[in-house]
Amino acid sequence: MSQTVDRALSILPLLAEGPADLGQVADRLGVHKSTALRLLRTLHEHGLVYRQSDQRYRLGARLFALAQEAMENLDIREIAHPHLVRLNEQCGHTVHLAVYEENEVLYIDKVESRYPVRMYSRIGKPVAITVAAVAKLLLADLPEPERRALAEQLDYPMYTARSTPHAEAFLKELATVREQGWATDLGGHEESINCVAAPVRGADGRVVAAMSVSAPNVVVTAEELLSLLPLVRRTADAISGEYSGRTPVKGTPA
């Protein structure tokens, strides 16, 4: 039974490459055509494959519907939270998770620092979109026209001397973030607070959330915080793998 299931499931990635006829399926599986036909008929009955008029098979609409339903029911916060807690235990600093919704970047989870000096950020509160590291990651992933249109309609308050001053500078920074795959806020919102962030990606590679580690410079210097970037990125990759289904559920690597 397990071999039959394995063979049936092996057909799906083959058809993801494009339509294939019975002979191609049989050859890929290393089975007789009659066996391949039996597997294809079962998958067809469940709507997972479709037989075209040219007698080739392709992925069925039911498969896409199931994938869409599964994605809609995924809770990125629920998946990410254990990883955020583990990261907090490793570094001791405040850890955030944020998403982009309706032209705002919102914190949806937070694990508090173990140090006495703490941040005043709150779950559900919009971030300072032109300076926050998580915002830069989320906006950098937008299509270029949407990214530019949004940048041009934003206000650019100068929270500190390091704040982003205007749309041109913001777009330039987003281009850098998009290329390097991580972001920082080194005193851009508050002089005394530094932050480093990494993206959480879905199965299609798009950024679905961003996570960050933040700390006041009375606890660690900006350079010391930046040294945590590899750990932050590994944590984000672990969340991405679990969210997209690419990796089994397991602990975040140290």
From TrEMBL:
Q: Which InterPro entries match?
A: GAF-like_dom_sf, HTH_MetabolicPath_Reg, Tscrpt_reg_IclR_C, Tscrpt_reg_IclR_N, WH-like_DNA-bd_sf, WH_DNA-bd_sf
Tell me the ranges covered by the HTH iclR-type domain, including all copies. Answer: 2-61
Q: Cite a single Pfam family from the UniProt record.
A: IclR_C
Report domain IclR-ED positions: 62-245
What keywords is this UniProt entry annotated with? DNA-binding, Transcription, Transcription regulation
**By what name is this protein known?**
IclR family transcriptional regulator
Annotated organism of origin: Streptomyces eurythermus
